[in-house]
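The authors assume throughout that readers already know how a fold can be written as discrete tokens. For illustration, here is how one protein appears when written out as sequence plus structure tokens.
>
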Amino acid sequence: MGVMGKTIRNEIRRLRFEHGEMTQQALAEKIGVTRQTVNAIEQGKYSPSLEAAFRIAEVFGLPLESVFRYTDNS
């Protein structure tokens, strides 16, 4: 299918709730971005920088691949 049919999906919303119902604001403060940025990443409207992606994974104590997945759009 090629690269055009791929998208980055994430588990941030689920992980926030599994970690004491962490708010978007709390996550944003931990990784050094705005709450609006966390919201856009979580909804798949914005792909984080590699650095931000690693910081998000670190907050949850997980490898990057457990938080983000590069998958087919189908």
